[in-house]
Design goal:
It comes from Neogobius melanostomus (round goby). Keywords: Hydrolase, Lipid metabolism, Membrane, Phospholipid metabolism, Serine esterase, Signal-anchor, Transmembrane, Transmembrane helix. This is Phospholipase ABHD3. The active site is at residues 168, 294, 323. This protein is of the alpha/beta class. It has 15 helices and nine strands. The chain has helices at 11-20, 22-26, 37-47, 103-114, 144-156, 169-181, 199-206, 209-229, 231-234, 240-243, 249-260, 266-273, 304-309, 337-351, 353-359, and strands at 6-8, 56-61, 67-73, 89-93, 118-123, 162-167, 189-193, 286-291, 313-318. Strands 1-9-8-7-6-4-5-3-2 form a nine-stranded mixed sheet, with helices on both faces. Helix 1 packs antiparallel against helix 15. It is globular, with a radius of gyration of 19 Å. It starts with 5 loop residues before the first strand and ends in a 5-residue tail after the last helix.
């Protein structure tokens, strides 16, 4: 069965997307035997291949004495963009417990590198295999590390157009950054996959019995494992043993995140982390992909009314696709719908920047 995804946006932006991303915007044929959002999500985690990507790692020091791990694909042999100083750059932001080794990152990078772009992955503190030097990690509402990374990348390549691509929590972080920085973001466009638009509603969805069993506990264990790996640094400011008893994302946030980042409650943190409440402050072109059956990001939280009023944001909603899955074909191991959509949008943003600005009513 071929489905036509719902594209929510203003007419001019929609016309641009239909012109430059026609196949993926207009058609999505999900894997026929993989029905339902939970099944898509699980099958993707089990089946997706991991293409070989040779990274160049860079550790950059932060003003608080910490360090951030960046994984680069310089693409020095790019035929389309042989001049390094102007070669387009894609900045990838992985999900909650992800890093540059996640299959969805590897496939997207292969897609971008094939098109001639430079790629860099921003690994959240503590998840890039680097040593945690200070008792500071990350959360969806804190954009300071991302601001520093963008400044660093733009400092190295000031004439290179920079596009941000965020997945799940990485998408939340990217949207919150774009809303905060406005015209000073340093990015020509943003692209997100499976963003949880409202952190409170996302958390509620993840606590439904089956979602809790399949996903919530697993993610909480991953978060606790990261804290335990850096126990010697974090125990200076947090009761690590208490954190290690968390059995859900909400419990982890109650015992760790809100204390580390100065929130009074999870409700306060979740509201601050939710990009749906800040989207109107963004100024660059943004394309967001979500599935209506995503167990992490429920459909009723999608900011459809807001998107319809904004000239620079488009939300593409598929009936099926799960969370960071969007599987196609009978045996979906390689690039699928979300990677192809990313590739076409990145190409459109880099090769037709003036047309994109005009479609989004953006003036220099």
């Amino acid at each position: 069965v071929i489905y036509r995804p719902a594209l929510v946006c203003r007419e001019a932006f929609g016309a641009f997307l239909h012109k430059h991303c026609p196949v993926v915007i207009e058609h999505f044929k999900p894997t026929p035997w993989c029905w339902g959002g939970r099944f898509q999500t699980l099958a993707n985690a089990l089946l997706k291949s991991r293409p070989t990507i040779n990274y160049r790692n860079e550790l950059i020091r932060t003003v608080d004495g910490g360090q951030i791990s960046l994984d680069w694909v310089d693409n020095v042999s790019s035929a389309a963009y042989p001049e390094s100083s102007t070669r387009p750059t894609v900045l990838f932001l992985p999900g909650l417990t992800g890093n540059s080794k996640q299959p969805y990152v590897l496939h997207a990078i292969r897609q971008a590198a094939t098109q001639g772009y430079r790629c860099v992955v921003f690994n959240n503190r503590g998840f890039g295999e680097e040593k945690l030097l200070t008792p500071v990690t990350y959360c969806a509402a804190s954009t300071s590390d991302l601001e520093y990374v963008v400044q660093h990348v733009k400092g190295l390549f000031p004439d290179s157009p920079l596009l941000g691509a965020g997945v799940s929590m990485g998408g939340m972080l990217l949207l919150n950054y774009l809303a905060k920085k406005g015209l000073e973001s340093g990015l020509v466009a943003g692209f997100t996959i499976s963003v949880p638009w409202d952190a409170q509603k996302s958390c509620d969805s993840m606590e439904e019995p089956l979602n809790f069993l399949l996903f919530n506990r697993h993610l909480a264990n991953g978060l606790c494992g990261a804290v335990n790996r850096h126990r010697n640094v974090l125990e200076k400011v947090i009761d690590v043993d208490h954190v290690m008893k968390a059995r859900s994302i909400r419990e982890f946030d109650e015992r760790f995140t809100i204390h580390l980042f100065g929130y009074k409650s999870c409700a306060e943190y979740y509201h601050d982390a939710s990009p749906a409440y800040k989207l109107h402050n963004t100024t660059v072109p943004i394309l967001c992909l979500n599935a209506a059956d995503d167990p992490f990001s429920p459909e009723h939280a999608f900011p459809l009314a807001m998107v319809k009023r904004l000239p620079n944001v488009a939300l593409l909603v598929t009936a099926h696709g799960g969370h960071i899955a969007f599987l196609q074909g009978l045996f979906p191991r390689n690039e699928g719908y979300m990677e192809h959509l990313f590739g076409q949008f990145a190409q459109a943003a880099f090769e037709h920047p003036d047309d994109l600005k005009e479609a989004c009513s953006i003036k220099d």
